Amino acid sequence: MIVTLATQIKAILSMFLNEPHSTHKYYGEILKTNQYRLFRDNHSFFPYYTSSYALMLLEDSFRNHELDPKYRKFKHHILPLLRLKVGGRDMPLFSSKEMDGYCKKLIDVLWDKTESLKVFREAIKDIEAALESVNFSYDITRLRKFTSQITQLPEVELMRGIVKYYSPFRMFGFIDAGLSDQVFVHINDVRTLRVRSLTEGQHVEFILKESSKGLKAEDVQLIES
């Protein structure tokens, strides 16, 4: 299987970063926008392989008329639905050992022709249901709102990570989110009620921002590990 860089970037952007609505952009622009999130040295190879293989199978299924070709334009939207249906919503960090096991569940389904077609068709049913309830004149495949509707994920993209360091005296620390750099976090940006400090090893969800000083976490919320 030979995969171009453009295909690889759009596959993983859709399946693991939940942004199928952004795949219409030039792949160089996508790579620049996501430079902290993709192709890092500490990343597992499995998400890259899994997303490309899933897209290849999906393309073959449309080409062989095993799936209704009219839904081919939603191929990138089917990928995150496949991941959510098989792997679940609690996706590990790209840099964690748990990511390999998470991807293996997806690969086991993809390697089974009957099972993969079943999940693809379930995803298309979700898309059909969403299309019946919306009326957009704009290309719906480019709308984050549509992605959020079919996946039931927040429109504001949230990242997950683990607190690697925190100073209760200085009230700031750093989050490991599997990116090229650790993410700065201040207690004032934690929105979980009654939290006045963070603890190393805590799992958090946050909005990633870029500043002149580096990566920063905003709207931080504690989540169960």
Please write out the topology.
Layout lengths: L4 H11 L11 H7 L12 H18 L11 H13 L10 H13 L2 H20 L11 H8 L7 E9 L4 E5 L6 E4 L16 E9 L2 E10 L2
Characteristic key phrases:
5 strands; alpha+beta; 5-stranded antiparallel sheet; 225 residues; 7 helices
Structure summarized in a few sentences:
This protein is an alpha+beta fold. 40% of the residues lie in helices and 16% in strands.
Arithmetic mean pLDDT: 90
Counted beta strands = 5
Strand composition percent = 15-25%
Q: How would you characterize the largest beta sheet?
A: 5 strands, antiparallel
Number of helices: 7
Give, in order, the helices and strands.
Answer: HHHHHHHEEEEE
User: Termini distance?
Assistant: 36 Å
Shape type: globular
Spatial sequence of strands, sheet with the most strands: 3-2-1-4-5
